[in-house]
Design goal:
alpha/beta; Oxidized Rhodanese, domain 1; eight-stranded mixed β-sheet; 18 helices; binds zinc ion
Length: about 475
């Protein structure tokens, strides 16, 4: 039979998630476990040799915890699960930090003073604070969510912090990415992340990865960390992090924001779902804008990021109830918090019963996230900002269609463009001249591609082009040509 060990019990099974045994009954399995992994004895059984009450045993869907089922012969391919109960009697040792590492940590007088307000909390105490210091946490993204997570985890005393981000600081980042300041403009985000961590506590081991997450590097970047905090802003990074974390057996504290709303969850922990179980596929490219496109209210990432940091600390210390199997949604505009149940999908291609994804390198993330042109699709042709500016200056006959929403146009009008929001394009295609070139523009050049594909599907036959990089890329050039901005 095949045995799955729930994450909280793994430290007693040499960190194994899956074990194979020739045993055919639960009784046989428990005897085998006790022989092979002597440490597991004290966590599974009490002093009378009875199974401890917080452990449940399942064979497939069937609850086999009760002793009268222990002699039932199971099929050779049976999937047996050792699951600690979440409610009630949680084992004391519920931390993701192994005891050996906690015991290797000590504090000097300054640290005892610095962390005094943690030490006085009964559930944290010296033991919990040692776990925090022993913890190795990877934070993906040093943007708005990352700003909150990095500061709180550094202040709380996490011993090793790795920050991964490939971006430089830009002026529009400063509205919510509070670890970066005006003097950090054009510096790598990981550089200001390092500064803030150094300023909080010089004893923290800080590791910077100024690089973009790809299938080729993700496993090397996160392997060996206790926890990944996902503070990214794009689907490709989220699936990459999720998949690599599941394959490496690392829990993920997930956070996401958009406009006034946010989500927080913990994936790949305690037999809960992974990101793919909950969101099996990303939305089509361009349909859901990122924060760079859709905006977000300034303190929202602080709220969501702080909850992520709090969840991360709870997993490290091993206290409280956590968000594995739950999705917290926050609506900051109407101030509503909702806690939804999310379930593991048995058919999940990554963490289900028959996983098909066995390595990140074998999976095409660009294709999955719609970042690659489909072969059967006719490629979308586009102009660079320079080419479009030149055509405008020459007075070339063409139609420019602005597919942004009205409030976006209020910030920045594009001169001489007709305005058709993306949702109205198909029914308003008769406003376009199929004899003439039509150029579609949006903020960053993603929705304009979606606009062209939408019209193609609706049967529009005229020549269509996309403004590469959108109005954001056009800004500097247009100033010199038109001066028609805001
Ligand atoms: Zn899954």
């Amino acid at each position: 039979m095949n045995v799955y060990i729930s994450a909280t019990l793994r430290s007693f099974f040499e960190k194994n998630a899956r074990l194979d045994t020739a045993a055919v009954t639960i009784k046989g399995l428990l005897e085998w476990l006790r022989d092979e992994y002597p440490d597991s004895g004290k966590i599974l059984f009490d002093e009378n040799g009875s199974l401890r009450s917080f452990v449940r045993i399942y064979a497939g869907e069937e609850d086999m915890t009760s002793q009268d089922k222990w002699d039932v012969e199971l099929p050779g391919n049976a999937e047996v699960l050792l699951l600690p109960a979440i409610a009630g009697g949680a084992p004391e040792n519920d931390s993701i930090i192994p005891d050996e590492r906690r015991k290797a940590v000590s504090f000097d007088d300054k640290e005892i003073e610095r962390f005094g307000r943690h030490l006085m909390l009964k559930d944290i105490g010296v033991k919990g604070q040692k776990r925090i210091k022993a913890a190795r946490v990877a934070i993906a993204g040093a943007g708005a969510l990352g700003s909150a997570v990095i500061q709180y985890l550094a202040a709380a005393g996490v011993g090793t912090i790795k920050v991964i981000d490939f971006d430089d600081v830009s002026l529009e980042n400063l509205q919510s990415q509070v670890i970066h300041t005006t003097r950090d403009l054009n510096r790598p985000k990981v550089a200001s992340a390092k500064d803030i961590v150094r300023n909080i506590n010089r004893n923290i081991v800080f590791e910077a990865e100024n690089t973009k997450l790809e299938a080729e590097n993700i496993v090397d970047i996160i392997d060996g960390y206790d926890l990944v905090v996902d503070c990214t802003d794009n689907y490709k990074a989220r699936y990459l992090i999720n998949d690599a974390a599941v394959l490496c057996g690392i829990p993920v504290v997930f956070g996401a924001i958009y406009q006034y709303e946010g989500q927080v969850s913990i994936f790949n922990y305690n037999n809960g779902p992974c990101f793919r179980c909950v969101f099996p596929a990303p939305p089509p490219q361009g349909l859901v804008p990122t924060c760079a496109e859709g905006g977000a209210i300034s303190p929202l990432p602080g709220i969501i990021g702080s909850i992520q940091a709090n969840e991360a600390l709870k997993l490290i210390i091993g206290i409280g109830e956590h968000l594995a199997g739950k999705l917290l949604t926050v609506d900051s505009l109407y101030l509503r918090f909702k806690l939804l149940d999310v379930k593991k999908d048995k058919a999940c291609p990554l963490c289900g019963a028959n996983p098909q994804i066995r390595g990140v390198q074998d999976f095409d993330y660009d294709d999955f996230c719609g970042l690659k042109q489909q072969e059967e699709e006719i490629p979308v042709e586009g102009f660079t900002p320079e080419e479009l500016a030149e055509r405008i200056e020459k007075g070339d006959p063409m139609t420019i269609v602005d597919v942004r929403e009205p409030h976006e146009r209020a910030i920045q009008r594009f001169p001489n463009a007709i305005v058709i929001p993306i949702g109205q394009l198909a029914r308003r295609q008769n406003e376009l001249d199929p004899e003439q070139d039509t150029i579609f523009i949006c903020k960053q050049g993603m929705r304009s591609i979606l606009a062209i594909n939408t019209l193609r599907e609706a049967g529009y036959k005229g020549p269509m082009y996309n403004l590469k990089g959108g109005i954001d890329a056009m800004k500097d050039i247009m100033f010199s040509h038109e001066g028609a901005w805001l």
